[in-house]
Design a protein that fits this description.
This protein is α/β, with parallel strands linked by helices and 374 residues long. It has 14 helices and 15 strands. The protein has two domains: 253 residues, TIM Barrel (Alpha-Beta Barrel); 63 residues, no CATH class. Helix content is 37%, strand content 20%. The strands form three sheets. Strands 7-8-6-5-4-3-2-1-9 form a nine-stranded mixed beta sheet, with helices on both faces. It has a three-stranded antiparallel beta sheet with strand order 10-11-12, with no helix packed on it. Strands 13-15-14 form a three-stranded antiparallel beta sheet. The longest helix has 17 residues. The two termini are 17 Å apart. The chain binds iron/sulfur cluster.
Length: 374
């Protein structure tokens, strides 16, 4: 089947805005960001141009997500300029607006300003409630700043507050991870994203691991930590709806991220931002200056563009579907039927009608599951 024969998804698209600035670099991070805060105004000018360019062909967004980098270091004034400039994109009333924040930047002014601008959700990059762990990760805040950020977000009227946590730290025991989750729950978030610490090439963490200065948990230990956290949150009544994502109730799932996992189109603006329109995927130039220069020439600042044919889309549906509770259609599975039988018998998948859904054990091996049916 040719790409153009496929029906375009009709669900409203999501809008992602990449804010590529950080005050300092964390030891494990491979995200596209720069410590050149003096480029923030150049970035804002580029954003205005990219909005104008994309508003010619995209509109009707029902989720907006400001991620990074560190969106909170824009400050209120730049945030106002950015949000006002998004008007041509036709963001629908009732859209979900998420702002990623670093605990250190969570001033009352920023959080109240964000509320007034229409943000209804904050995602706090807390990562840990243990000061030693935060120092190891090169975070610029301590655990008390995370507590204060949640407190201030609630004071400012945010009812939907997500907190990021990182586990599988060197020497971390299941008991330590359990206590971290307990401490996080006491702060009253409505959503938790629990990410396993992974070694990204080129990071200070990768160098430390290569040189033997840091030893991370092995496969069995990581598996135990994942299960301990998931079981603890489930026992507390939380909804484990994606490998790393937990919501206090299903209504509090991250609407924007759900679009990525369900293969719904999204537009990414800003350096290195990724976009997907149902058939094509592209990502922007990662250099802030080159991205801005190309937009100044009224040129789309695309670095790479891919066309996804029906087979590539199927494989992506498998990869994404096995990572979240939405599962995948049985019709997308290839290979001998015995593979499905084995995955069902091993408790990795459950079948309901014409879809299969990953169990918690399935989440643990989500990528391997997709390969079994590729
Ligand atoms: S983890 Fe976040 S705050 Fe740290 S360097 Fe990466 S993008 Fe910046």
């Amino acid at each position: 089947m040719l790409t153009q024969d496929l029906e375009r998804p009709k669900t409203p698209p999501g809008l992602y805005i990449h804010v590529p600035f950080c005050v300092s670099r964390c030891s494990y991070c491979a995200f596209s960001s720069s410590t050149r805060l003096d480029l923030r105004d150049l970035w804002l000018e580029g954003m205005a141009r990219e909005v104008e360019l994309r508003a010619r062909t995209w509109d009707g967004f029902d989720t907006v997500y400001l991620g990074g980098g560190t969106p909170s270091i824009l400050g209120v004034e730049r945030l106002v300029r950015l949000v006002r400039g998004l008007e041509p994109l036709g963001i629908v009333p009732g859209a979900s607006w998420t702002l990623e924040v670093n605990p250190d930047d969570c001033s009352r002014e920023l959080l109240w300003g964000a509320r007034v601008l229409g943000f209804d959700r904050v995602s706090i990059g807390g990562q840990s409630l243990d000061d030693r762990a935060l120092r190891f990760m090169g975070r610029r805040h301590d655990a008390s700043a995370v507590e204060q950020a949640l407190h201030r977000a609630r004071e400012a009227g945010f009812e939907d507050i997500s907190l990021d946590l990182i586990y599988a730290l060197p020497g971390q025991s299941p008991g330590h991870w359990r206590r971290q989750i307990e401490a996080a729950l006491r702060l009253g978030p409505t959503h938790l994203s629990c990410y396993e610490l992974t070694v990204e090439p080129g990071t200070p963490l990768a160098t430390a691991v290569d040189q033997g200065r840091v030893v991370l948990p092995d496969d069995d230990q990581r598996r135990d930590l994942f299960l301990v956290g998931a079981e603890q949150l489930e026992a507390a009544g939380w909804d484990h709806y994606e490998v790393s994502s937990f919501a206090r109730t299903a209504a509090l799932r991250a609407r924007h991220n759900m679009k990525y996992w369900a293969h719904v189109p999204y537009l990414g603006l800003g350096p290195a931002a990724h976009s997907f329109d149902g058939f094509f995927r592209w990502w922007n130039d990662g250099s802030i200056r080159q991205w801005a220069d190309r937009l100044a020439r009224d040129e789309a600042p695309i670095e790479v563009e891919e066309t996804l044919d029906a087979e590539a889309l199927r494989l992506e549906r498998l990869t994404l579907g096995f990572r979240q509770v939405g599962g995948v259609p049985v019709a997308d599975l290839r290979g001998p039927p015995v593979h499905l039988r084995a995955a069902l018998d091993d408790g990795l998948l459950v079948r309901r009608g014409e879809r299969v859904f990953p169990t918690r054990l399935g989440f643990l091996v989500a990528d391997g599951l997709a390969l079994r049916f590729a």
